[in-house]
Design a protein that fits this description.
The chain is mainly beta and 124 residues long. It has no helices and 11 strands. Helix content is 0%, strand content 49%.
């Protein structure tokens, strides 16, 4: 069991940067593959990035490769999403997700827990 709380969202201008944080409760954070998803108004929830339980290998969706980086600090029970060169199309609610397993996944239904989301709005 894990509880997730996202923070760090806000309103930024295009080409700006934000770092999202996801703080997890409990003693089993390292047992979870972590991911970030986002959902824009009127659209389905979209995979953004995921990271192995111990860090290291990551996957990022094509639209954010080279701009976003997922990372984690298991000593702090926290996963991050560094977002650079933001575009208006990145505007969405961003959700932190946890998967009880070792395999990375891109599908939302492979994840077992999620946070309340944090709003990211990118203006031109």
């Amino acid at each position: 069991q894990v509880q997730l709380v996202e923070s760090g969202g806000g309103l930024v201008q295009a080409w700006g940067s934000l770092r999202l944080s996801c703080a997890a409760s409990g003693r089993t954070f390292r047992s979870y593959v972590m991911g970030w998803f986002r959902q824009a108004p009127g659209k389905e929830r979209e995979f953004v990035a995921t990271i192995r339980r111990g860090g290291g290998e990551t996957w990022h969706t094509d639209s954010v490769k080279g701009r976003f980086t997922i990372s984690r600090d298991n000593a702090k029970n926290t996963v991050y999403l560094q977002m650079n060169s933001l575009k208006p199309e990145d505007t969405a609610v961003y959700y932190c997700e946890a998967r009880a397993g070792a395999a990375l996944a891109r599908a939302a239904d492979r994840y077992d827990y999620w946070g309340q989301g944090t709003q990211v709005t990118v203006s031109s």
